[in-house]
Amino acid sequence: METLKMSSRMSLVQNQILPLNFKPYPLIHNSRILGVYSTKGRTFSFTLTCKLNTVKGNKPSKEKSRISVPGSDGVAPPVAESEEGSVGNGGRKVEEAKNGVVGFGLLKKLPRKVLGILSNLPLAIAEMFAVAALMALGTFIDQGEAPDYYFQKFPEDHPPLGFFSWRWVLTLGFDHMFSSPVFLGTLALLGASLMACTYTTQIPLVKVARRWSFLQSAETIRKQEYADTLPRASVKDLGVILMGDGYEVFSKGPALYAFKGLAGRFAPIGVHISLLLIMSGGTLSAVGSFRGAVTVPQGLNFVAGDVLAPSGFLSIPSDAFSTEIHVNRFSMDYYDSGEVSQFHTDLSLFDLNGKEVMRKFISVNDPLRYGGITIYQTDWSISALQVLKDDEGPFNLAMAPLQLNGGDKKLFGTFLPVADDNSPNVKGISMLARDLQSVILYDKEGKFAGVRRPNSNLPIEIDGIKIVIADAIGSSGLDLKTDPGVPVVYAGFGALMLTTCISYLSHTQLWALQDGTSVVVGGKTNRAKGEFPDTMNCLLDQVPELVESSSPEEPNILSGL
């Protein structure tokens, strides 16, 4: 028989503090006793939490019964709903007294509310669309140009879309979109939403999936997405079949629990982490890199730090910025049609002591990497022609790019004066070149004179002057870059591909219970729900059927025969 033990304080409260009625509910351990206090026509409800002891285990209770009643002033407090669902506010006042600050509970709830807002799916989708729109706008607006360019491109008198003038571009930093505060702020907000979603949704789902428990009720198992009953079967045989199919199986008495594909539950967390890596790497590239471009004639050199310019506030130069880069030679390859197919540069790198630390031939899609600096072959031009005039020289004639009417072909030209220096109209021999293969010459009247190949040493006479094209000196167009975010972005994309594939794994959970000679089986899965019943039927068909043993009398009859 169970008895309810309460301290003598209860009777004291009943006898000395106005009428107090309570009704206990026996045989419920750690139960709450409901009571009503009434005075002057006012009532309030309260709860009493107590612990029951049985006669069999008559041990002193570790927890004393507690009761909350109003003061002896005879004024009943207002009725309020407590956090645990009971009526009364005595517990709330005690908590406020402990904290010493009214409203401390609201401060504790504030982070949860913020997480709830950030993990809102419509907000995350809006953030993704905002990032995509800013990226598209960054491709529409030319990046990194001088302010005069935007004054002409987006004038105030006729702005695009009727309002988008240069003030918008320069004020919001859209001339360097991917390092602008607007873009980085939107990206940070999207990252916060991903982290909030991971913390509030994905991690709890994984925790729940990792907990394995047995269902002791056949009715509960039959309420699963899939349920079936195997007559004359053993739950142990079912466990063997499930282990052969890759399930992790746990059994306890007549109950069984099995699961597989738990990695599929971790995959969404991995996808979110991968996206965060990609965004972090892109942000690091935008605010922590150096970039620069230079066109260097063959035979000259430059210092890497003189070309590289910081792109953001996290850009920190390294020791490799003092490296001197020398262009040993520039060459070009051609198609049969004469068009340029590829161009190469022989580069040497020297340290501060003048020691060559690296040498490499680079070409398009085959850069040089040293000390965190990457040098790309991106362009070419012709810097000068070496010309012999009447066996004198050679003279270096600087080549200048010429404007063409449309097309992407290049044309370079230079001029060799041959007229009297005192004449007001200087005339001479004009030379044009599309590439390093050949040079076209014109006389001082502008008439075609001939074509010569550099290094052919074949002279041509124009207006009584003997001309020899000794060499055409090319210039290598190089792009230099340091980007600490590239490894992070590559790691993010690699992890994204891997976790995306893993996310297609189905997380399947099965429960079974031996009910006499039958086995009740139920289960659920988070993917491939249409194929799940067929898969389960194939597995359950492999469970052997139990055969009833013969009666004791049958062996005697057979032995008598």
TrEMBL record:
Q: Name one GO cellular component term.
A: membrane
What Pfam families does its record include? Answer: ResB
**Entry's InterPro entries?**
Cyt_c_bgen_Ccs1/CcsB/ResB (IPR023494), ResB-like_domain (IPR007816)
| Cell compartment(s), UniProt | Membrane
Q: Which of UniProt's keywords are assigned here? A: Cytochrome c-type biogenesis, Membrane, Transmembrane, Transmembrane helix
- This protein's source sits in the domain of life called Eukaryota
- Main location group: membrane
The UniProt transmembrane annotation reads 117-141, 182-201
Question: Could you tell me the membrane topology recorded for this protein?
Answer: Multi-pass membrane protein
Annotated segments matching region Disordered: 57-92
Q: Using the record's annotation, list all stretches that form the ResB-like domain.
A: 123-383, 437-534
Tell me, which GO biological process terms does this entry list? cytochrome complex assembly
Protein name, per record: ResB-like domain-containing protein
